[in-house]
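Let us practice reading a record.
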Amino acid sequence: MPRIGESMKRLRLRRHLSTRELAARSGISHSTISLIERDRISPTLDTLQAVLDALGSRLSEFLGTIREGGVSPFYLADDMPEIGNPDNISYRIIGLDHPHRSIQFLCETYCVGADSGEMLTHIAQETGYVVSGQIELTVGDATRVLNKGDGYYFDSREFHRFRNVGSTKAEIVSAITPPSY
């Protein structure tokens, strides 16, 4: 578990508040705030939320910035978790841990014959670029085979489906906003 004290203290100082002023605003004793800032105690979720509310910060934003050095803008291959099934359709997501993520960016690999299955729908917009192979994309009543260098952009509220209809693996780089996972 990362230590949050130093990050909380930096946030308090940016707001130009003393521990006593923060205590009055949050309802948490100044001695407890001091202990948290020195990483002598770990706050409960309720305590942390009360302090962050008083500092005008959201929990997700705060927790996203307490990693060593903050959030890195770089993601190596090992930093992109697999959220699919590599034996069928692999979805490697970039930036899953980013605290202010408003887009879902994926590297998708479709094995020969892979099929996303039933027609999908969700509230978002979706775009992608075929890096290699052939993908059959159905959006609503329209179906098209996309080859290397082709792309797509559609409203994800329309039913859609992806299939690899080629004889080799197919790769897509895609983006969805807002993120669905």
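A brief commentary: The mean pLDDT is 89.
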